[in-house]
Design brief:
CATH class of the largest domain: Alpha Beta
Strand content: 15-25%
Strand order of the largest sheet: 11-10-9-12-13
Structural class: alpha+beta
Order of helices and strands: EHHEHEHEHHEEEHEEEHEHEEHH
Radius of gyration: 19 Å
Number of domains: 3
Shape: globular
Number of helices: 11
Distance between the termini: 19 Å
CATH superfamily of the largest domain: ATP-grasp fold, B domain
């Protein structure tokens, strides 16, 4: 029976260390870890909870090894924080689930990812990367614009002011984001159309879409953006609808093309939004998608499409095992 280690960042651990709710928004709950542990065990594996990168370093230094590591660590520090665990596992030739260090380092930086996507010919909104205050005055994009931190997830740094209509607003928002998040700001042409997320399992030619879900922010929401506040308080203000037909096909094709272009593995999500012509544009990819069985987007869209949590985790593990056995 194969031994599978679980690497993860437990939100409650970081809260106890004094980090805020927003700083720990991307980390996992006990509910998620319990669900993963139980499901992987039911699939016929022996599991061992490892924890975060510091626990992994300690265990490896003591000689512990695993046949496979199910890695959902987001990391805390640096632009390469999501790549830390897979890089360490690679150094010790320990196989793992999900993408490699190169993919995770690239895709955390939304601007660099869009450069690769654009070069590959996949539609994505025109953009600029603001490294310092002086860069703000060189932007030549037409308004309205949309601004967000270049390397955050879970809607952090996004709020009602993220949609920008004037140079004054642009300067103010970029100043705030640069000072608060201590990282570059991505400024892009605002996409006015519908928003979708596409769930993907598999690697390379074996990658396939398992569902396309529309994200509808209702008038009841405080902010008409998929912000940190909106995501944290989604019940009653956000509607999630499974999409079928021509739009499903177009979104799936765009998402799979992006997934393969970036070299993502095993499972994750690609977020898309329609431009003024109704064409799906790449927003970002999440190669470490949330896996809470009840409210994370990927399990949710899978469930809407007839794939239960047990089946979803099996698809992800099967993809990882297929790679190891080649």
């Amino acid at each position: 029976m194969l031994k599978v280690g679980l690497t993860y960042d437990l939100r409650s651990d970081y809260i106890k260390l004094g980090f805020t709710d927003e700083e720990t928004a991307e980390y996992d709950s006990e509910e998620t870890i319990e669900a993963l542990d139980k499901t992987i065990t039911e699939l016929g594996y022996t599991t061992q909870r490892i924890g975060n990168v510091f626990s992994l370093v300690d265990r490896i230094s003591k000689g512990e090894r695993w046949d496979l590591v199910f890695n959902i660590c987001e990391g805390m520090h640096g632009i390469g924080r999501e790549a830390q665990v897979p890089a360490l596992l690679d150094a010790y030739s320990i196989p793992y689930v999900f993408s490699d260090p190169m993919v995770l380092a690239l895709t955390l930086h939304k601007g660099q990812t869009k450069r690769v996507i654009r070069d590959y010919g996949i539609p994505t909104a025109d953009f600029a990367i603001i490294e310092s205050v002086n860069d703000i005055f060189n932007i030549q994009l037409p308004f309205p614009l949309f601004a967000k931190p270049v390397a955050e997830g879970t809607g952090k740094g996004i709020d009602g002011k993220s949609i920008i209509y004037s140079p004054t607003e642009l300067e103010k928002v970029c100043h705030t984001l640069l000072n608060k998040h201590k990282q570059p700001v991505l400024v892009e042409t605002y996409l006015p159309g519908r928003e979708f997320t596409v769930g993907i399992v598999g690697t390379g030619e074996n990658a396939k879409a398992i569902g396309v879900m529309e994200i509808i922010i209702t008038p009841r929401a405080k902010e008409q953006t998929y912000s940190y506040h909106t995501k944290e308080n989604w019940k009653g203000i956000v509607e999630y609808t499974l999409i079928k037909g021509e739009m499903e096909t177009i979104c799936s094709q765009t998402a799979i093309k992006a997934w393969r272009c970036l070299g993502c593995r095993d499972g994750g999500r690609v977020d898309l939004k329609l431009d003024s012509a109704g064409i799906p544009n790449f927003i970002e990819v999440n190669p470490l998608a949330g896996l809470n069985p009840s409210h994370s987007d990927m399990p949710m869209l899978a469930r809407y499409n007839g794939i239960n949590y047990h089946q979803l985790i099996k698809l992800i593990l099967d993809s990882a095992m297929l790679r190891q056995n080649r």
